[in-house]
C-alpha cells in the first residue's frame, strides 16, 4: 500500500486569547526537517464534508506530528509519539504500517541493562522517576509487536522489565510532574496503561517469569482491582480495565461505569473532559497557573463538548460491547464528524499550557480510534495511497508499505533463468529469476512482479519469509519486502556498528552486494549493516591481489554466498575464499580447510543428525568426509562433508541432494551417488539451486531451463 507523505505544511490563522498569551507562543505546533504543522485554533474552519479526504488528512497530520517530534525532540512522550505508536499500529490495514523511525526512537530509549530505581520523595509524595516514560514506551513497543511483528521483541521485554523497576510498593505506577491532561494524571490512568502494555505484548504474560516479576504483575492487578477512584475519569476507565483484564471488573461495576458515562453525554451528542473531574483532582501537582487557565476558560461554568472525551466515550462504550448502532454512540459519531477541521485535526483547547495545544493531537488519535471501532475507517482502505501527494519524508521516514499496491502481470510460463524456488507457509510458491523479477504461483495463476511493481531489482539472489508471513527478496541492489499487498525496499543503517552483531531468534540475515564484504541483519525494524572482523587469510589475499593490479577482480574475500542458521541458533556464513565462519552471538570461528578456501562456498546444510555439509565450486573437486572440528584429516563419519555443487538439501527420507550446474542433480544414499542429468530437448540444463517444499518435493532452479520438480523417478519441468 502506498504511504508516501510529502513535506507537510498545515497553515491556519490563529487568534490567541489573553489566557493563552500567558505562555510563550510558538510559530508552529510541529516544526522539523521540512515538516511544518501550524498551531491548532478554535478558529480553524470545519470540514465541509466528512469522508475519505478528511480521514486521509487526519492520517497525514498524526504522521507529520510524530515524525517531527521524533526528529526534533527524540523523546518518548504522552501527547504525540506515545499516542501515535500506541494506536497507529492497529490501523495498518487502512494506512499502511506505522513509521519505523518513530518505533526505532522508542527502542533506542530502552535501557541496555535493567537496574533498580530509587524511589523519590517530593512534597510528601513518593514516586519513581521515569515511571510514565517507561509505561508509554513499553505500551508503544508492545502494540507494535502485537500488530506488526506478532511476537514480543527483546526490546519490548526489556522495556517491560524496566517498567516494573519503577512500580510503587502498593502495586501502582505513580504519575508525577505536570503533564497534558488527561494523560498521565491519576495513578489509576497510568497504572491502567501499564496493564495494557503487559496484555498487548504477544505471549508476555503467559511466558515463564522469575517469581519476583510474577509477584509484581499480581500486585498491579490487585491494586487496579481495589483502587479507590480519584474522580469520575477513573470510574469510567474501569470499562477499559474490563476490556483489558475482564476478571478484575464485576458485571455490576461495568454496568455502573456505562451508566455514569452515559449520564455525562451532552445534548449535542458530545462529552467534555472537564466534566470528569474537578480541576484540583486531576493530579496532585496542579499548579496555580494551570488552575487559572482551566478555571478562566470562557465555558468554565458549563464546559462544552470536546473531541477527546467524545472520542474516548465512544471507544469505551465499544470496548464494553455496546453496539455501534446504539443511539448514544451514533450521536457521538455525528458530533465528531461535524467538528473535524480542514487540516484533518480535531481541535481541543489545552488543559495544560494553552500554547501548543497538544491535546489536539491526542484528540485526533482518539477520534480515529473511535471511528475505527465503529467501522468508519474502512472507506480509506486501499485508496489511502492514491490520495497522497507525491514526495516522501526522506530515507528516515521510509515506511514498511512505501510503494504502490503490486498487481503484477499474469503470465503463462516462467522465465528460463530461475535461480531460486521458495514456498510460503501457506503453500504459495515464489520463483526468483536472474533478470525478470519474481513469479508468484498460488495454484491457479502465475503472476510476474518486476521493478515496475516496486522490486528494488529484477535480479533475485535469495528468498525467505518472516514469522508474520512477509516475503523478502535479496538482490545486489538491495532487499525488497512483500507484505501481501506491496513491495518495499528496506533501508540499511548508514553506519557499520560492530555492537549490532547479535543473535535474535526472529532476525533475518541477508548476503550483501559484491565487493562489499558485508552481511545484513534485519531485526524487524532496522536493517543493520555488518562487517566481518578482519582475518589473516583475508588480509593475505588482499595483499596478494591488490585492486591496483587486478582491477577486474570485483569481489572481496569476505563476500558471502550463503547463510545458514543452525539448530542451536548459530549463524554460518560461506565466503568467497576465506572459508566458512560460524557466529555464536559472541565469537567468530573460521573453518579454513584447503578445499573451503579454493573457491566460493555456495551452500551449507545441517542434516537431521546434526552433520554439516558444504558445497563449493572450483577446480580439483573434492569429495569425502572432513570433520569441522578436524579439517585436514580424512575421517569417516565426520560431522562435516565437503561436496562440489551449487546448492544442497536433505529430503524427507534423509537423502542428500545437490545441484551441480551442467552435471544436473545428484542424490547421495550413503556411499551410493545417483546422477540426474537435466535436459530441455537436446539442451543441457545448468542447475543452480535445489530446494525442498513443504510436502517434501525436491525442486530445481536452473540457469536456462526454468524450474523442475521431482516426481519420484525423474525431474519434470514446471
Which secondary structure elements does this structure contain, and how are they paired or packed?
Blueprint: E1 9-10, E2 28-32, E3 35-38, H1 52-72, H2 81-88, H3 92-95, H4 100-108, E4 120-122, E5 125-127, H5 131-149, H6 154-164, H7 187-200, H8 211-226, H9 232-236, H10 238-244, H11 251-263, H12 288-295, H13 307-319, H14 327-339, H15 359-373, E6 409-411, E7 418-423, E8 429-433, E9 438-441, E10 446-449, E11 460-465, E12 471-475, E13 478-482, E14 487-489, E15 492-496, E16 508-511, E17 518-522, E18 527-531, H16 536-544, E19 560-565, E20 571-575, E21 580-583, E22 588-591, E23 601-606, E24 612-616, E25 624-625, E26 640-644, E27 647-650, E28 656-659, E29 665-669, E30 672-676, E31 679-680, E32 683-684, E33 687-692, E34 698-702, E35 707-710, E36 715-717
Parallel strand pairs: 1-3, 15-18, 24-26
Antiparallel strand pairs: 2-3, 4-5, 6-10, 7-8, 8-9, 9-10, 11-12, 12-13, 13-14, 16-17, 17-18, 19-20, 20-21, 21-22, 23-24, 25-26, 27-28, 28-29, 29-30, 31-32, 33-34, 34-35, 35-36
Helix pairs in contact: 1-15, 2-5, 2-15, 5-6, 5-7, 13-14, 13-15
Which structural class do you get from the secondary structure elements? Answer: alpha+beta
User: How much helicity do the residues have?
Assistant: 25-40%
Shape, principal axes of CA atoms: elongated
Distance between the termini: 31 Å
Please summarize the sheet with the most strands.
5 strands, antiparallel
Share in β-strands: 15-25%
What is the β-strand count?
A: 36
Number of helices: 16
Residue stretches low in confidence (pLDDT < 50, at least 5 long) are 1-22, 379-404, 619-639
Strand line-up in the sheet with most strands: 6-10-9-8-7
- Name the average pLDDT: 83
Rg, nearest Å? 30 Å
